[in-house]
Write a structure and sequence with these properties.
This protein is an all-alpha fold. The chain has one domain (19-223, 232-460): Up-down Bundle (Growth Hormone, Chain: A), CATH 1.20.1250. 81% of the residues lie in helices and 0% in strands. It has 17 helices and no strands. The chain has helices at 3-11, 22-54, 58-84, 97-113, 121-148, 150-153, 157-188, 192-217, 232-243, 246-276, 282-305, 310-331, 335-371, 376-404, 415-443, 448-462, 465-473. The longest helix is centred in the last third of the chain and has 37 residues, at 335-371.
Length: 474
């Protein structure tokens, strides 16, 4: 590290060296391209597939998401505990191998979700539950290690923000391509149900390939000593340490708000385009422009976080999101206005999404500093637990609300049903964005200044040789 870089790091209250190359950043982004090819099929299209193609009742289809995602949440915690306490760690690293081995099973299980056999309604529901729960478990085995990697790739706070932004760029690219490309593939086939299956096969294959590319191009630069023995007392202490981590708990709760709002919008936008705009082509336009705006926020996030605390950039994103959705509720009556206001809302959401992974990595260091227990996997899986709960809410609420307002698949909808779809698309996310601003302001205390002091204290405790050498050059 030269003197200019050292001075910049010091000014940022960041004394850890930069260890991540451009190739590593691109590789990490590709991992989330693959994750989203695999994961977003369920968030974008599975509810509509259940109601309009398979013929499941709306409330019953929504309950599949509720039960499966609550199951996933506990699976995440179990996976995180297992990862933290692995003792047989190969040269590939602690987290990377999961990207390699989980890809194919994950792709096959995704396809199973969109190939419902011609059973009775009860049989179709059983298939939906089993297929989606197994998919979620396999996704945890792949995604928990992937998200836990940032603390092992770098200890530099700014570099973590950059990695989080690259990851979000990959996520947004995957979501954009899934939104733009899915329905055109469906429309090429003679019927929609077959089209859904073929489109999912295409994206499942691409998702596995992207995960393998990521595996080949990322690197774990730091590693904790392998644990020699695991006992219930250690596990209990680790769980208690998570409950003492106030920044982690705050971040997890606001993610329950923002991620449920984001995923609910993804599920409802298909219904909005079909029944309010009567323009299914709007889904592809929305994918291009709205997710394109998220790329703008991903580009802006590292620039803003160099000048403004990550906490306040996060709150700024929620403010943009809330304003755009409130205006959209009243004004989005045609494709142009719908795409415009939703794109601005996604711009705001992009700030929160890009920063989540950097903030949760900071919470790892805070937890170790506070309790002496370092647990990347358990911290990440605790955080992911709330994201899975948010996905459960995002799948369950639309199904229940659609049933409540009298939604009938494939038919002209009543005024009440159309109002319900509009409210789900805009008001739900606006209210939760405002709640996030309030909670982050009052409860999230891990500012950049405080984080810098915590990292310095931790590195002094560890006697980190690399960082000591950097300090001596200052």
């Amino acid at each position: 590290m030269d003197s200019t870089e050292t001075q910049a790091a010091t000014q940022k209250n960041d004394i850890a060296p930069r260890t991540v190359t451009l190739r590593n950043k691109i590789g990490y982004a590709m991992g989330d391209v693959g994750n989203n090819f695999l994961f977003d099929m369920g968030q974008l299209y599975l509810l509509n597939y259940f109601t309009d193609q398979v013929g499941l009742p709306s409330a019953a289809a929504g309950t599949v998401f509720l039960v499966a995602k609550i199951w996933d949440a506990f699976a995440d915690m179990s996976v995180g505990t297992w990862i933290d306490n692995r003792t047989n760690i190969s040269k590939r690293g602690k987290f990377r191998p999961f990207l390699l081995w989980a890809g194919i099973p994950l792709g096959l299980l995704l396809i199973a979700n969109f190939t419902t056999p011609n059973f009775s309604v009860t049989g179709k529901l059983i298939w939906a539950y089993l297929a989606y729960m197994l998919f979620g478990t396999c996704y945890s085995i792949s995604n928990v290690p992937f998200g836990s990697m940032i603390p092992t790739m770098t200890r530099n706070s700014q570099e973590r923000s950059e990695l989080a932004s690259w990851r979000q760029a990959g996520s947004n690219l995957g979501l954009m391509l899934a939104t733009i490309g899915f329905m055109p593939i469906v429309n090429l086939l003679p019927n929609e149900q077959t089209g859904y299956t073929v489109a999912v096969v295409v994206f499942a294959a691409l998702g596995v390939i992207c995960q393998w590319i990521s595996y080949a191009n990322i690197k774990e630069n730091y590693s904790a000593p392998a644990k020699q023995k695991v006992n219930k007392k250690d596990l209990k202490a680790a769980f208690k340490s998570l409950l003492k981590n106030k920044p982690l708990i705050t971040l997890s709760i606001v993610n329950l708000f923002t991620f449920s709002a984001f995923n609910l919008k993804l599920a409802v936008q298909v219904y909005y385009c079909k029944y309010i705009l009567k323009d299914t082509a709007a889904i592809s336009w929305l994918g291009f422009f709205s997710i394109g705006m998220v790329f703008v926020s991903v580009f802006l996030t590292p620039i803003l976080t160099k000048r403004i605390d990550k906490k306040y950039v996060y709150m700024l994103g929620c403010a943009i999101w809330a304003i755009a959705d409130i205006l959209g509720f009243f004004m989005a009556d045609n494709t142009f206005l719908f795409v415009f206001f939703t794109s601005i809302a996604y711009l705001g959401d992009g700030f929160t999404s890009a920063l989540n992974w950097a903030l949760v990595s900071d919470c790892v260091e805070y937890g170790e500093w506070q309790t002496g227990i370092r647990s990347e996997g358990m911290t990440y899986s605790f955080f992911l637990y709330f994201r899975k709960l948010s996905q459960a809410i995002a799948g369950f609420v639309p199904g229940v609300v659609l049933a409540w307002v009298g939604y009938v698949p494939g038919q002209t909808q009543t005024a009440g049903a159309l109002l319900g779809i509009r409210g789900l698309m805009f008001l739900y996310s606006a209210v939760l964005s405002i709640a996030t601003i309030i909670l982050m302001y009052w409860a999230y205390s891990l500012t950049e200044k405080r984080y810098g002091a915590i990292v310095k204290d931790l590195l002094n405790r560890r006697g980190d040789e690399k960082v000591n050498s950097v300090q001596m050059t200052n």
